[in-house]
Design brief:
It holds the Pfam family DUF8081. The chain has 109 residues and is of the alpha+beta class. Helices cover 46% and strands 16% of the residues. The protein has a domain of 72 residues. The N and C termini lie far apart (67 Å).
Length: 109
């Protein structure tokens, strides 16, 4: 019995080792079991800027694959936004007060 994993674009974009593997081996890879697939994902994540992991395919997924190799794209964008907000606050450009709902509904008065 084999365990088929497909590499999603999010994983290729987030992790250079995944992109290299796809270039040389294709977007699908067959393993003996899920444990072997997870070990592969862990090896790809070692020393990488962005981790990748195995995500089981949904039971209603009609494709041939058992799981997908994925990563999260928004992770760095979310952290970057938090950094910008903190930087504005430290420079005095943002007092950190989000205001109240009436501030936004009354036109800021």
């Amino acid at each position: 019995m084999s365990y088929l994993v497909e590499v999603k674009p999010s994983a290729r974009k987030a992790n250079a080792a995944v992109g290299h593997a796809v270039l040389h081996e294709g977007t699908r890879r067959e393993f003996d079991d899920r444990g072997a697939a997870e070990a592969w994902a862990e090896g790809l994540s070692t020393g990488a800027d962005r981790p990748v992991w195995i995500h089981a395919a949904h039971p209603a997924d009609r494709s041939e694959v058992d799981a997908y190799l994925v990563s999260r794209q928004r992770q760095l964008l979310d952290l970057e936004g938090a950094y910008d907000k903190r930087r504005r606050r430290l420079r005095g450009g943002d007092d950190g007060d989000p205001g109240t709902l009436s501030t936004y509904t009354d036109g800021g008065t």
